[in-house]
User: Which sequence fits this backbone?
């Protein structure tokens, strides 16, 4: 916790251990999300129905080994099936649970973050951005002035046009090779729920972009990824694309914007840059406990 405080500050770090809103369901506990992904993006099967939020788990096989995983504070049931290892990723719940063994941090998530989207009737964008950092507020204002002056554009792209622009940005070579395949798979799985937005500067180059995915059954829009290069870094495009994405949530009646992973102690140091950037948007952190595990199912076929 001390490392979180030193990096994020005491107020934001404290949110990592606070209870989640009752209407918030982590998207990786959403049955419909995995039903769309199954067989297209991930070879997983949604299973179970746990707690008041109806969190589902997923089941998969790697070679001869079978696994199940649940992300919830409610104890998963033992479901029918072959011998397998069940992982239980708790969020706020702590302490020992009979029948479960402690796992390691590497078996699950450490830290994610999300922002509640302020509905138009409750104050909309103005109230939303009032909770941003001074840096975020300043750049959101500059972004809108550049749009109004015609010095930047905001455009919805098809996936191939987005990927062409994405390849021009500096990225880790592995991610640059791996990500296009994943985005194409997700686009096939989720259809129009997945949207590719980009901004073009005065020189005509598409130099900043963002990918967002609506998961309406979880009342969430997910920040999937993005890129930025050249003049866009100096022209507030990264902040502007986040602002626009939250406007999209608001227009579609989505309640939460999920920013994905954030740096936590033990994670690679190069995660700190994007975590610091994402932490300025009025977010709350979600800290995950070390997973528990147990073997279930018949020991012989």
Assistant:
């Amino acid at each position: 916790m001390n490392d979180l405080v030193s990096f994020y500050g005491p107020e934001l770090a404290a949110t990592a251990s606070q209870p989640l809103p009752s209407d918030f369901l982590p998207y990786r506990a959403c049955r419909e999300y995995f039903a769309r992904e199954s067989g297209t993006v991930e070879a997983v099967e949604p299973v179970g129905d746990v707690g008041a939020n109806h969190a589902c788990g997923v089941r998969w096989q790697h070679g001869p080994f079978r696994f199940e995983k649940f992300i919830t504070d409610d104890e998963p049931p033992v479901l029918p099936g072959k011998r397998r290892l069940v992982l239980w990723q708790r969020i706020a719940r702590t302490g020992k649970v009979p029948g479960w063994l402690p796992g390691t941090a590497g078996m699950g998530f450490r830290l994610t973050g999300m922002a509640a989207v302020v509905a138009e009737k409750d104050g909309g964008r103005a109230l939303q951005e009032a909770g941003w950092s001074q840096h975020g507020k300043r750049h959101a204002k500059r972004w809108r002035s550049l749009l109004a002056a015609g010095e930047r554009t905001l455009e919805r792209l098809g996936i191939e046009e987005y990927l062409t622009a994405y390849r021009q940005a500096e990225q880790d070579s592995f991610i640059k090779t791996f990500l296009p395949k994943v985005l194409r798979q997700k686009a096939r799985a989720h259809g129009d729920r997945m949207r590719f937005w980009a901004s073009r500067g005065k020189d005509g180059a598409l130099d900043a972009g963002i990918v967002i995915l609506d998961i309406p059954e979880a009342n969430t829009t997910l920040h999937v990824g993005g890129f930025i290069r050249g003049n866009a870094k100096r022209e507030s495009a990264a902040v502007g694309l986040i602002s626009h994405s939250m406007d999209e949530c608001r227009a579609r009646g989505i309640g939460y914007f999920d920013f994905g992973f954030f740096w936590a102690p033990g994670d690679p140091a190069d995660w700190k840059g994007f975590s610091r950037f994402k932490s300025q948007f009025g977010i709350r952190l979600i800290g995950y406990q070390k997973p528990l595990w147990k073997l279930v199912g018949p020991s012989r076929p």
